[in-house]
Amino acid sequence: MKKVYIETMGCQMNKSDSERIVGMLSHFDYEECTNPREADLLIVNTCSIRQLSANKAYSQIGVWGKWKRHRPIKIGFCGCVAQQDREGLMKRFPYLDLVFGTHNIYELPELIKRVEAGEQVCAITEIPYKTDETQYKIERKGNLNAWIPIIEGCNNFCTYCIVPYTRGRERSREMDVIIDEAKKAVAQGFKEITLLGQNVDSYGKDFKDGKTTLANLLRELNKIEGTFRIRFVTSYPTDITDDLIDAVDECDKVCKYFHIPMQSGNSEVLKKMNRRYDREQYKSIVEKIRKRFKHVTITSDFIAGFPGETEEQFQDTLSAIKELQLDYSNTAAYSPRERTVAAKWTDKFLSEEVKYERLERLNEVNKEACIESNKRFVGEVLDVLVEDVKVRDGKRIITSRAGNNKIVHFESETAQIGDFANVKIEKASMWCVKGTQV
Ligand code: SF4
């Protein structure tokens, strides 16, 4: 067996892609290794959401390029930066053996044969490479959570976002294929299925049959026998339909958790971001969800320092987090991405100093929101899945995750990784809650 090492950067979609890449390579006598120095083939699966992530990928292959002087290794570069930089990568890093884009993952078996024959290969297309993907294994990481992509790409073209350019337009996978993948994961013992999509609640729109929807997919997955739970990320606010909320309510295996990026609390900024909602619409979606589910959590994403954002507009973001009682938010300073609309508004760019000062204040408000959210669960009983067990001072300390995504710690003599339990919450701290098993 030859060895492949894959360094994965960025989101869960990339992690899922890496599991598929390793699975495919296993059909060609490659096994995954965890030490890059032992690998015959090294691949970096890249993220281009921020310049920082792209730079990290360039520096990674720079290091591997030096190793090539001493060992006959092959180096591959894939993911969103590959889709964006294309042939330019081969010119910049001539020691690369393989560059393949987000649409070319399933072309990998053919590409690898050419690379092994000594060819330098660059495969980037705008149209996904068509194949019967079910013929290949998926080498899933761990044994708790199985990532299952259900829709790839995005049609929204938010003015700051590179995704529609690197992942292309929305393409939903067939419901049968997804259900089959989920059944296999449950049979293998996975306790959680996470449905992935850059715009997961847009699932099925491209089928135009009215039946292929995220709500109906959840209903079908909920019928699979076994003890497991189902999540889905990431939701676009206005694609959360009443039917989807009904399905989450009806399906006992579906976690009462929504990740709904708001991006800005100011309606004018949202318009410039080309988000298709304003502050009030977002608020009404959040209120609708909160009314329906007792223990629901709603998390979000925000950008600090979007081009032209005034201090008053930024204040609206801070007030939105408080007013909507968002449970947690991922935050980032605006980072211009080549090819996007907002990247051309250079005269409106804010200084790095202003962006990072705003980000700091955003993070402070986010921390306060987080602790307030955790306090709301004191006295409540949450359903948790055990993720880790550590022994400290002779006590077994359990780290678990509730259906609503809260990190819950408790002590137990018996709980094992993969067990489900109910925990009464007694204490709240900033990033987690603590309680007693009941
Ligand atoms: S909806 Fe999300 S993935 Fe699509 S363009 Fe906007 S930010 Fe990017």
Overview of the molecule:
- The radius of gyration is 22 Å and the shape is globular.
- The strands form four sheets. A six-stranded parallel sheet has the order 2-1-3-4-5-6, with helices on both faces. A five-stranded mixed beta barrel has the order 14-15-16-18-17. Strands 8-7-9-10 form a four-stranded mixed sheet.
- The N and C termini lie far apart (48 Å).
- Helix 8 runs parallel beside helix 9 (242-250).
- The protein folds into three domains: 2-123, Rossmann fold (3-Layer(aba) Sandwich); 133-375, Alpha-Beta Horseshoe (pyruvate-formate lyase- activating enzyme), CATH 3.80.30; 381-437, OB fold (Dihydrolipoamide Acetyltransferase, E2P), CATH 2.40.50.
- The protein has helices at 12-26, 51-67, 80-85, 88-92, 108-116, 163-166, 175-187, 214-222, 242-250, 267-272, 279-292, 311-323, 352-375, and strands spanning 2-8, 30-32, 41-46, 74-79, 98-100, 121-123, 145-152, 171-172, 192-197, 229-233, 257-259, 297-304, 328-333, 381-392, 395-402, 407-411, 420-428, 433-437.
- The chain has 438 residues and is α/β, with parallel strands linked by helices.
- The protein is built from 13 helices and 18 strands.
- Strand 9, helix 8 and strand 10 (229-233) form a beta-alpha-beta unit.
- Iron/sulfur cluster is lined by residues 154, 156-158, 161, 163-164, 198-199, 236.
